[in-house]
Amino acid sequence: MTITVRPLTVxxxxxxxxxxxxxxxxxxxAGTHRERYxxxxxxxxxxxxxxxxxxxxxxxxxxxxxxxxxxxxxxxxTARLHDLYVRPQLRxxxxxxxxxxxVRQWAGERVRHLEWQAHHERAAPFYERLGHRGDxxxxxxxxxxxxxxxxxx
Length: 153
Fold this sequence. Notes:
Blueprint: E1 4-7, H1 13-23, H2 32-42, E2 46-53, E3 56-65, E4 78-86, H3 95-108, E5 113-117, H4 124-129, E6 144-148
Parallel strand pairs: 4-5
Antiparallel strand pairs: 1-2, 2-3, 3-4, 5-6
């Protein structure tokens, strides 16, 4: 299976929505999630990427550039990986690895650090298999991962 990662569009909503529901969404009025998705797609601080094969969406990742640091400017600029999701039946097949690599590439062009939190049982082992180490945080079930991407290119 050849996996392609690309920025998602509004037209991807029908395939994305079941994944968002599986990740867990708030109980908001109909259309609210789709409207927020469209707004984030238009926001240059955000990237929402999809991994696909043969026109089928396999997973997605969403990240946000937090902008310049108040005291350190761009020297400590950070992006946060909010979501990385792969359809359950496709996990351990390279989809998550491809999505994370694409997020790292996007972040590496904008920020110094990429950070995220991951549930210690459900998600952290994936990141650990890729060589990342989570640090304890105030939510003990969600270690924090951070990658120093080096000076902005």
